[in-house]
Amino acid sequence: MLRLVTLTSVLALSAAAAMAEDITVGVSPGEHAEIMEEVAKVAAPKGLNIEVVEFSDYVVPNQALNDGDLNANSFQHRPYLENQIKDRGFDLVEVGTTITTPMGVYSEKLKDIADLPDGANVGIPNDPTNGGRALLILQDLGLIKLAEGTGLVPTPLDVTENAKNLAFLELDAAQLPRSLADTDISIINTNYALDAGLNPKTDAIATEKADSPYVNIIVVKNGDQDQPWVKQLVEAYHSPEIKAFIDEKYDGSVITSW
């Protein structure tokens, strides 16, 4: 079949090529990396070339973005960013929401959270926001009580009631799946659970409430939020193709925000 190429279409293709832009986006392993690879496929035909860079922890992606080594990152929830800005002085801003990944309680020893013994060892993330998030889950489960006024970032020092005398083992979030042999339960972020082969729907013995405030976000340096590529990135992420990919691949363990 002969394809008719008009001057208008040639000019449109030339304009798209001229406007093509390359950006680098930092992600954490698991669903954030997997989804951003799909976002890159959606964005490429529209003139945005995304290089996806994985980081093995939660600290470096914000530092790298603040230093100008990344154009954007997509790995963290809003309370974590707010805490990082407060503690480290980063000049970063949110430009779009992505997904919610409810934290889960995992165990190699227990099948039911009700069977948690007195004096149990509990693994939680050692960063303030995710550690606080884990403690809030334990409070929701009725296992501890926290001091009022601690908001979203309580620490073990804020535990005012601990009827089972739980002992908290604070570890790097990425190490928690490997802690299961040494703890009675560990509270693990979904990306690290998935990366370790854990299924949040079938392997978690308890899960964070669905109305959690911990929606994940796309972040850029302050001053870049009005750049054309930012709009392209967010639109590619919020596309029907990405929503369908997430719904099919994660089967409800990862929830879209749009």
TrEMBL record:
GO (cellular component) term, any one: membrane
UniProt topology in membrane: Lipid-anchor
Source superkingdom: Bacteria
Signal peptide boundaries: 1-20
Pfam family, one: Lipoprotein_9
Subcellular location: Membrane
Protein keywords: Lipoprotein, Membrane, Palmitate, Signal
CDD domains named in the record: PBP2_lipoprotein_IlpA_like
PANTHER family: D-METHIONINE-BINDING LIPOPROTEIN METQ, D-METHIONINE-BINDING LIPOPROTEIN METQ-RELATED
Family recorded in the similarity comment: Belongs to the NlpA lipoprotein family.
Protein name: MetQ/NlpA family ABC transporter substrate-binding protein
Organism expressing this protein natively: Paracoccus amoyensis
